[in-house]
Each structure stands twice: as C-alpha cells, then as structure tokens.
Write a structure and sequence with these properties.
The chain has helices spanning 5-8, 19-29, 46-57, 80-93, 110-125, 128-133, 182-189, 212-225, 249-255, 257-261, 266-276, 280-291, 305-308, 361-368, 372-377, 391-404, 418-426, 438-453, 463-471, 494-508, and strands at 69-73, 102-106, 134-137, 142-145, 151-155, 169-173, 198-203, 233-237, 322-328, 336-344, 347-357, 382-384, 406-412, 431-433, 457-458, 474-476, 482-484. By secondary structure, it is α/β, with parallel strands linked by helices. Helix 2 crosses helix 3. The relative contact order is 0.10.
C-alpha cells in the first residue's frame, strides 16, 4: 500500500494554478442520485478528494495538466461509477470543459456503458441549473452542453462508427471485461488533436495475464514501484497481496476505502466471506472482486500459478533419456499440444511443443488478446501452413522425439486423433488411448497437484504451457473425483491436458526399452 500513501495521508499536493481546488469544488456541488445521500451534495471522501486534486492540480508552468492517463484498480462497490460520472461532468460543463469537447464513457457492453451515463444524467436532473444548460438524449446516450457544444457520450465495444472522434476525456470502465483492444486503440488514438486530453481507466481485477487490462495493470505496477518513470501516468492500485489472509478484515479495509467512508457495508462483506469459506469457487470470486487480487488464469483456477512458477528452472535432460509423450490435438483450427515428460531426480521435466495454423495466428491474437504472434516469433509455437493444423508436422515431431529420446509411450486423447493414432502405431510407437473421464483423470490430476506443490515439475518457464495450466478449471464431485472442464476453463488447456496425461503415465510406468532402440535410432 506504500504507493498509495499520498492518497491516504495529509501531505500537501501541488496545485500552483488552483485547478485541483476548482475541480474539487465543482464535484462537491453536484448532487447524488441514489443511496442514503440521494439529493445531497457529493460528500467527497478524503481519498476521492485527494485523487481529484492530484489529477487536476499537478500542472506545469503554462497551466497545462501534467497527468494525462490515470489507471484506477478499485474493488466493487467503492463508488467508482459515481466518481466517473462526476469527472465526466467536470469535463463536459465544469472547469475542465473546452469548446466542442468530447467526453466518452466506454465499456464492454451497452448496459455497462450506460451506468456512468445514467448517473451523470441523474446528477443533472437533481440540479435546475445543470438541467437548463444541457440537453439529454437518452435514446442516443448523449448529453450536450448547449453553450460550448461539448458532448458526453456512452459507447460500448463495437468499434464501428467510432472513427473520426476527437476525444478530450475518456473514461474506460471495467476494462478487464473488454473482449478485445480495438475500441481502446480507436478511442485513445483519437485524442491526439486535444491540447491536454485525459484518459481514466478504472476497473476491478481481471483474469489472465494477457490482453489490454493486464497490460495496463502491469504498466501501472511498474510506474508505482518506480521501475518505470512516467510523470504523465498516475497509478492508483487498491489490491491485497496474493498471499494475504483473505478473511482478515484489516485487509478488507486497506483495499476498500469506501468502508471507512461509510458507503460500503462491511456486514455484507462478512456474509459473503462466510459463504466463500465453504465454497472454493466463491472464495476465488471474493478475492478478485472484493480484494482486487488479479487472477492469472481461470476465475476458479485448478492450480496456484505462483507455486507452479517455482518450476521455471531450465529442463536438463539428455539424448536417450526415457520419456512419455502426451498428445492433445484439439480441433484442426485450434491449438494442438505435444508434451514430453521425463522422470528424473528432480521430479518431472517437461518439453512442450505447440501448433497453431499460420493463417489464424493474427485473427486469434486479435480476437482472444493472446500473444500468439509473439509466441510464434519467439519459437514457443510452431505455425503450420494453411488455416488448419497440419497433423503430419505434429506426427513428424513426435517421431523425431522418438529418435532422440526413449519414448516409452504416447498417451493421447482419442478425440479427433484417429488418423494420427493409426499413423503413429504403424510407425511402431506404443500409443495409449487416454480417457478424459474421472477414472483416468482423477489419479492423473492428483499426481500433478502433488508434484506442483512439492516443486517437482520442471517446465523451463514455457509461457504457452503456463497459460494452458492457468486456464484449467476442474470439476470435482462429492467423491473427490476430479477432471478438467474445458467448458468452464478460461481459454485453451490443451497443453495442460497433454502434460497431465504424460505425467500420469510417467508416474505409473516401469521404464522399459523403447521400440526405437531396436531400430538403431539411439545409442545408450
């Protein structure tokens, strides 16, 4: 919390041109529209007032604002919607307004985009003066300031029709839920004509370590820590440590400033925490939405990736070492995975390989906000020619593995794999059809869980494999049986499934000679 000291103490904040003071006084005159304070002037909490002073009061010698981008990570129910609406009005018709200004509140969908707009509309209607000087068009989600011609507009993620804007203030709401970054790029690139544009990105914690939201979150963390110097970027990050005691009410209060301000009921948090203590899936949701702990992968993850990451040491296996090669081919248009598992003195050492159709790489990256192109450039993924995965390339790679190492078995998910199974079998490889139900997966996943917790899985830090493991959500029945649930998982899990199958066979098999030894491909 040290990066937020300025927000919570009484230290002096710069305001050489009184712009911070003017902004604060404008917001305080707005009247709230809901809750216990409905109809009353905005009772700015101390942290909210200091935030406004920091954004608008820190000006250069010429009076222009120093801060141009603000990233606010704030748990739910801490008044962010009301604050966003007030700041939007500050730029529409307050001291920060400008001729023909364009204030845009953007969100992932129409309903979310309308929340700040509706709050701003309600504030206007609570003031006869503001009602007189504005025109509200609810059907178009647009408020116009009659004198300056400035507009406050709410839009959702569909990019069509957003080109040609010249935004002066952008409020990007709940960016963790934005399905792709195209809207962000269009909106932020439209601000170049403005003298001192302001972008405010405000969100609760998200899932996954790829995409726009995590990109901004990661940058904000670096600025907050001093790793990156950027005086134009203001990070405001309310989050609990990942290893915190999530049931500690002092932790709750540290990351939920609205509790101290009186508009966040701690009783409701207690009720939710009591339920979360009994239901693991709700526990993860509590950590994310109430404590702002960013989830690396699935909303209800199977593994703790911070523990998994302890296995990022380089893989150290030798030619001729025995291994088991798990194969998950998925569909012909999707990610396919091959993972060789070696049983060594250090535990299980993994060599993963991934395949994606060359022609779908860019489309998948734009659609899913996953860095497929970067992974391909760095060699973590093998692009196969065309728009479908070329299984013959995968089969050739498996045969090359068998030439280099002692492949004792090839456990494979039978789905969509009949041709590959037949070809690998014809080449003399011992293929094992590995079931995906409880009977096969329960012991397999429990062995992987044990190995991860005991730091006995060495994966070399492969980012694609980490992504796959982070995406896995598991189904657990009352008897304790467990299996991956692809429908519930955050994204692709094929690499994790291939690794699970390979480790399962490595844990149970006795090391026998490979059929390839008799063919003279390797010498021990």
């Amino acid at each position: 919390m040290s990066s937020l000291d300025w927000l919570q103490d009484s230290s002096a904040l710069p305001d050489p041109h009184d712009k911070g003071e003017r902004a604060v006084q404008f917001v305080k005159r707005l009247r709230l529209h809901e809750g216990a304070f409905a109809g009353r002037p905005f009772p700015l909490a101390s942290w909210q007032e200091r935030l406004i002073r920091r954004i608008y009061g820190d000006t250069k010698e010429d009076g222009t604002r120093r801060i141009r981008k603000v990233f606010i990570l704030l748990p739910r129910a801490n008044g962010k919607t009301t604050l966003c609406a007030a700041l939007g009005l500050l730029h529409l018709l307050g001291p920060e307004s400008e001729a023909a200004g364009q204030v845009v509140a953007a969100a992932a969908d129409r309903e979310q985009a309308s929340i700040a707009f509706n709050a701003a509309t309600a504030m206007i209607r609570n003031s006869p003066t503001l009602t007189k000087i504005t025109k509200v068009a609810e059907s178009n989600r647009r408020i116009t300031h009659r004198r300056s011609g400035s507009r406050f507009t709410a839009i959702s993620h569909e990019v069509g029709g957003k080109h040609g804007l010249s935004i002066s203030c952008l409020i990007a709401d709940e960016i963790h839920a934005w399905p792709k970054r195209a809207l962000w790029d269009v909106l932020t690139q439209s601000m170049g004509k403005r003298e001192q544009p302001l972008t405010i990105a405000i969100t609760t914690a998200g899932c996954g370590v790829h995409g726009l939201a995590h990109e901004l979150y990661d940058y904000a963390k670096k600025v907050a820590s001093g790793e990156v110097e950027d005086e134009t970027f203001l990070p405001v990050i309310f989050e609990a440590p990942a290893d915190c005691d999530w049931q500690d009410e002092d932790v709750w209060k540290a990351v939920n400033p609205a509790i101290a301000s009186g508009f966040r009921r701690i009783e409701e948090m207690r009720e939710t925490a009591d339920m979360a203590a009994e239901i693991p899936a709700q526990r993860e949701a509590f950590k994310r939405f109430y404590l702002n702990i960013w989830s690396d992968g699935a909303p209800d993850p199977w593994l703790d990736l911070s523990v998994y990451d302890d296995g990022a040491a380089p893989v150290e296996v030798q030619d001729g070492d025995p291994c088991w090669v798990g194969v998950d081919l998925a569909s012909v248009e999707d990610l396919a995975a091959v993972v060789a598992a070696f049983r060594t003195d250090r535990g299980y050492e993994l060599i993963p390989r991934f395949y994606v159709p060359q022609e779908t790489l860019r489309k998948r990256q734009e659609r899913d906000q996953i860095p497929y192109l970067t992974w391909a450039e760095e060699g973590w993924i093998t692009p196969t020619p065309g728009n479908v995965v070329d299984y013959t390339i995968i089969e050739d790679d498996i045969l090359k593995l068998a030439e280099r190492y002692r492949v004792l078995e090839v456990p494979i998910d039978r789905w969509n794999a009949t041709g590959t199974i037949n070809r690998l079998t014809a080449d003399g490889l011992p293929v094992n059809l590995f079931g995906q139900g409880n009977r096969s997966m329960t012991p397999a996943m429990k062995e992987v869980e044990r190995a991860v917790l005991s730091r006995q899985i060495i994966h070399g830090g492969n980012p694609v494999l980490r992504w796959c493991f982070g995406n896995v959500a598991a189904d657990v029945d009352p008897a304790g049986n467990i299996k991956p649930n692809k429908a519930k998982s955050a994204e692709k899990i094929d690499g994790a499934v291939a690794a699970i199958m390979a480790i399962a066979r490595a844990s149970s098999d006795e090391i026998q000679p490979s059929v390839y030894e008799d063919r003279g491909f390797i010498t021990l």
